[in-house]
Amino acid sequence: MHVAVLLYDGFDELDAIGPYEVFENAASAGADVRVSLCTLDDSERVTASHGLTVAVDATLDDCAPDLLVVPGGGWNDRDSPGAWTEAERGAVPDAVADAHADGAAVAAVCTGGMLLARAGVLDGRPATTHASALDDLRETDAEVVTTRVVDDGDVLTAGGVTSGLDLAVHLVDREFGSGVADRVCEEMEYESRGDVY
Fold it and tell me: Which domains does the chain have, with CATH numbers?
């Protein structure tokens, strides 16, 4: 399984790096998974919401993922780079819609769910997002569920920031089994909250 984490200026660090680390640890525990940090444009680095600069592996076009993970960040700070800016620009939602149409599963952490909503992939589906954006999600065609992780098969969403760890652990468990998921949690000294709809 190839997982691509889609980065853009202003993404929240933990939304992306948390799931990245979970999948990397799953690979170390024997899962057939590889993870790439991707952007839409050909960029060497991306600056996250708290100022962390992250090196990029490839463009999304070069990744061809089985699973696309979309972080959030910056939804409510509409004067800075982040999810709101990307939703308005439209390129990330278009890329999400295209990846999903091409057969990739899509997963969003935090307000990355709003980018999935803009892409139309949450229409008629259960979904969640960061608590501060739930009212905005209610204005879409998604069926809002207030839980930590929502798994609707090929579309998954998670609530705020740290719930991205739960999302990734859930996916590891779903795709590679509880033994691998348990080894990941032990390695990371993380106890998944397990609140999955």
Answer: 2-188 (3.40.50.880)
